[in-house]
Amino acid sequence: MRRAALIAALLVASCRGSRAPRADAGEQAFIAFTPDFQGFQRWPRTHLGRFSSGGHLEGPQQYAYINRPRREGSRLYDTGTIIVRTRERGAPTEWQIFASVKRGGSYNARGNVGWEFFRLRLDAQGRVVIIARGLNPRTGLEDPYATGEGVGCNTCHGTTDARTYDGVISPMLRPPDP
Ligand code: HEC
Predict the structure, then answer these.
(1) CB of 48 closer than 6 A to ligand 1?
(2) Lowest-pLDDT range, 32-36, 39-43, 88-92?
(3) What is the residue extent of each domain of the chain?
(4) Which residue from 32, 72, 130, 147 lies 20 to 30 Å from 81 (Cα-Cα)?
């Protein structure tokens, strides 16, 4: 297990150039910063369709972008995984953008274990800006579609059911049934 985590961490480091993963409470962890999200628009993406989520606002242009696939047969996403969920209506600066990042270790131990939540937006040059992050990110913006704002992303992504699937809810992305 430790060895697998180490290999995963080394892979992250090699894919990401010179930046080494940082330690978090003595365990291997990946702490995402703005550069880690840049160019997500070119990552492999899954069309989420008009899936009635009961969570995020629906719309025809919804995508999940992932920086690395879940390992075949694994029930967990590796530390270092970034899933960006967009609702692409209007100009990119208007898109609603959420992200879950597998930070690893004991982060968010009582909720969506290992995952940190983000609210992002794109600036006029198409660069990603982090507007909120953490266990319960609040943007403070007047946003009528602010899924999770104040309520907390763990409300849905940290349930016992969601945790059975590594906190990932979309049927297109969640690990197979146990
Ligand atoms: C009311 C329930 C609910 C809340 C609160 C919620 N989500 Fe979700 N989320 C869902 C559902 C359902 C899906 C899968 C269907 C979809 O994409 O609409 C999903 C999908 C996602 C995905 C794509 C990967 C996956 O798990 O399927 C990301 C990333 C995501 N949410 C991030 C967030 C973040 C960040 C927050 C908090 C700011 C948040 N969510 C709050 C219900 C919720």
Answers:
(1) yes
(2) 88-92
(3) 32-164
(4) 147
- Write the DSSP symbol of residue 175: P
d(CA 75, CA 148) in angstroms, rounded, equals 25
Q: Report the 10 Å Cβ neighbour count for 12.
A: 22
Residue 139 CB–ligand 1 contact under 6 Å: no
* Alpha carbon 71 to chain centroid, angstroms: 16
* pLDDT above 90 for 14: no
Q: Tell me, what's the pLDDT at 58?
A: 77
How far is the centre of ligand 1, averaged over its atoms, from the C-alpha of 53 (Å)?
Answer: 8
Enclosing H/E stretch for 78: none
Nearest-atom index, ligand 1, CA of 83? 29
Does ligand 1 lie within 6 Å of residue 119's CB atom? yes
Ligand 1 pocket member 56 (CB < 6 A): yes
Instruction: Report the side by side order of strands in the sheet with 45-47.
Output: 45-47, 62-66, 82-87, 96-102, 115-122, 128-134
Three-state DSSP state, 34: helix
